[in-house]
Amino acid sequence: MVRRLADGLLAVLLAPRCLACGTPLDSPLDGPVCPDCWRTVVPIPPPLCAVCGDGLPTWRMLDPAACHCARCRLQPPAVACARAAGAYEGVLRQVIHGLKYEGRRTLAATLGAMMRARGAEVLRGADVAVPVPLHWRRQHARGFNQAEDLARHLGLPVVRALCRVRATSPQSGLSAADRRRNLRGAFAPPRRRWLGRRQHDPAIRGACVVIVDDVSTTGATLEACATLLRDGGAREVRAVTAARALSRRR
Q1: 186 backbone dihedrals φ, ψ, rounded to 5°
Q2: What is the mean pLDDT of each run of 10 residues along the chain (250 residues)?
Q3: What pLDDT sits at residue 247?
Q4: Euclidean distance between CA atoms 30 and 15, whole angstroms
Q5: Half-sphere exposure (CA, 13 Å, Cβ side) for 131?
Q6: Number of neighbours of residue 160 by Cβ within 10 angstroms
Q7: 8 φ/ψ angles, rounded to the nearest 5 degrees
Q8: 222 and 52 in contact (C-beta within 8 Å)?
Q9: Which of 106, 49, 51 is nearest to 236 (CA)?
Q10: Checking phi first, is residue 125 left (phi over 0); if not, alpha (psi -120 to 50) or beta?
Q11: CA 208 from chain center: how many Å?
Q12: Which domains does the chain have, with CATH numbers?
């Protein structure tokens, strides 16, 4: 009763609107996105690459051995399996922008629940979640790391096993090769003590680790992180993201 009254007062006094479609929110306490918009965020339709989760042309399913995208066939990635809650477009793209750039941190709970449900095969049997880190300057300016907010809703222990030691240029607009070059040397293990030597976190040694991020485009960031985690002794590295930019529209 109290919640319904509070929702009604907020709806009347503040008249908040949905972040995605702009319609007035009947239940502002449920978050800045209306239920109708959340319902449009659907899983990426199969068939999917068995490794990276990118969409595949339907004909590939006729040959089970071909259920890998061209990129994963050409060079098997360090990430054993990656999945996303949905495609990086429409409402999901607006929601992620609201989380990252407008500080709407309450969105992480619903996004995290979607990632947990739609990335169940990635999370099954995993030991820890490792969020992709921000450079300290960017995190200071933003006030939080959206990947860490998402990771806290996946039901796994969250380990800060990576640091971003070099401020990189924005990845948007870069080719896959340029993204890889841009990330070279960008990540490192954390320092075990203040100004001490960098060492891999013992929690990842022999563990099945899930890297968590908001968006995967070419997978370059996930690959850079996975390579470092495997060097640190991780048994297997997987990845789950809120969204994936599909290379092929179907």
Answers
A1: -80, -25
A2: 52 69 83 94 92 79 66 90 97 97 95 98 97 95 97 98 86 67 88 80 97 94 96 98 80
A3: 79
A4: 14
A5: 21
A6: 14
A7: -65, -40
A8: no
A9: 51
A10: left
A11: 17
A12: 1-40 (no CATH), 47-244 (3.40.50)
- Token pair, residue 90, equals 């429409």
Answer whether 239's CB lies under 8 Å from 82's CB: yes
CB atoms within 10 A of CB 192: 12
Structure confidence at residue 174 (pLDDT): 63
Which candidate, 48, 64, 102, 39, places its Cα nearest to that of 216? 48
pLDDT of residue 73: 85
Question: What pLDDT is attached to residue 47?
Answer: 87
What one-character DSSP code corresponds to residue 151?
H
pLDDT of residue 57: 77
**What local confidence, expressed as pLDDT, does residue 59 receive?**
56
CB 95 within 8 A of CB 32: no
DSSP state of 7: H
Using DSSP bridges, classify how beta strands 163-164 and 187-188 pair: parallel, antiparallel or unpaired: antiparallel
**HEC-encoded secondary structure of 149-179:** HHHCCCCCCECCCCEECCCCCCCCCCCHHHH
Angstrom CA distances, 167 to 4, 46, 210, stand at 45, 36, 23
